[in-house]
Amino acid sequence: MADDGKATPEKKSWADVEEEEEAKAKAEAEAAADASSSAADAQAKQIEALSLSVPEEEEGGGGGGDEHGPPLLDDSDESQIQAVTSGGTVYESASAFEDLKLTQELLKGLHDEMGFSRPSKIQAVTLPMILTPPYKDLIAQAHNGSGKTTCFVLGMLSRVDPHRKVPQAICICPTRELAQQNKSVLTRMGKFTGITCACAIPPAQKDYVPISRMPSVTDQVVIGTSGTLIKWITHKKLATREIKILVFDEADHMLAEDGFRSDSERIMRDIQRSAGGCQVLLFSATFNDRVKDFVTKVIKDGNQIFVKKEDLTLEKVKQYKVLVPNERAKIDVIKDKIFEFGQKVGQVIIFVRTKQSTKDVHNALTLEDYVCSSIQGSLDQSEREKIIQEFKNGYTKVLISTDVLARGFDQAQVNLVINYDMPIKFGTRDEPDYEVYLHRIGRAGRFGRKGAVFNLLCGGTDNTVMRKIEDYFQHKVPEVRNWQSEEDFETALKDAGLVE
DNA sequence: AAAAAAT
């Protein structure tokens, strides 16, 4: 009966750089002139009650790999959110997938293949917005693990014509792993529709074929990373003429981060030119003020859903500080505490700051016969896939990773996250990367499950970073009193609900 | 002092 969290794969015209700077300056001016009616604020419908209400875990019985549906919405009034949005259109929140005029094939995929019974809150609110003509753009923020993937996957599956063998939907992701994961969700959900999906990521070396010899894409949906998508478009392997819907997963990152931003702009411009525009969906758990301001200027007339940053931390994922005297002690904590307790409870991801650190930590642990694996973006593609596969299979329990897996990676059994290094903004010493922090801890507690996070802090800088994070999210993080005490760790895991 | 994406 104490069987917890079996896989529920949640399952689930355009500004130039200069214009953005201009927009930023303008926004600041506006904000100064009239704080109460800045354009972004006025339009944003802050739906604050969007946090998922998840039933207590009540899964019984074993059953390998069988999947549960998403948590049911409460039968309270809360489940009936009415969002009045841009253009005055009123959308009725969907209390059942049946309310959405989906095809029988799609409903079958949702119920039979995915095991979903009813929409999660973010799904209930956004799906009508996505699926009701006129198809308006959407910027949607919702908590980690709350079911965003299903929103845009269902959006793409509903809007493409299965009978036309031509690309009609594109989804852009920040990492290859996320692209593959999203493709896998879409393929499962669309199992009975006949819709197919191509994954636009660089091939493993062994599968390499020159782009000139690659056949044109005939799949209705293409999900990929920005560089490869651009490559396919440039070489006329991916026609954008009939694209009806364009999705940015982890949109704050894709639209605001250097490198990604220009790629994203490029793809939007291509579609704008050849297809005359299409519905654009932006999804992420994080949109900081700066990015929110930017994206609301890029996607002007869309519907918007935002969550206050103070409401973003997941209640069921307990965070802790662990003060250690030196770097070496971090390894000891992993060995003596995390391997001791953590991997018995579920799977563990250890986040480090650099690629080199993944190797260092991995080696240090391997030297002492601890079994783990590590991943970072410089590994060969086939190696990356193998490591992910082994982790998703549950074959490996402890995975050391750079921020390549910080966003979107969905593995229900992960209920423990270790911040071996705290995330800091590039070029700074003690300025936290709040978004990365939130995404990392969101790897635990998928779909309302319980989880724990241990922040390993060594020295003044780490403490400063942690304190700023607490202030930012207005969330006090308790301390594990003694890093050497087994009891203290056990108590923490008990409080988190991970051990009896 | 950087993760990521890709040529």
From TrEMBL:
Residues 333-488 form the Helicase C-terminal domain. Its EC number is 3.6.4.13. Residues 1-76 are annotated as: Disordered. Residues 129-305 form the Helicase ATP-binding domain. Keywords: ATP-binding, Helicase, Hydrolase, Nucleotide-binding, RNA-binding. A motif (Q motif) lies at residues 95-124. InterPro entries: DEAD/DEAH_box_helicase_dom, Helicase_ATP-bd, Helicase_C-like, RNA_helicase_DEAD_Q_motif. It comes from the Eukaryota. Residues 30-45 have a biased composition (Low complexity). Signal peptide: none annotated. Residues 1-15 have a biased composition (Basic and acidic residues). One of its GO terms (molecular function) is RNA binding. Residues 95-124 form the DEAD-box RNA helicase Q domain. Coiled coil: none annotated. This is RNA helicase.
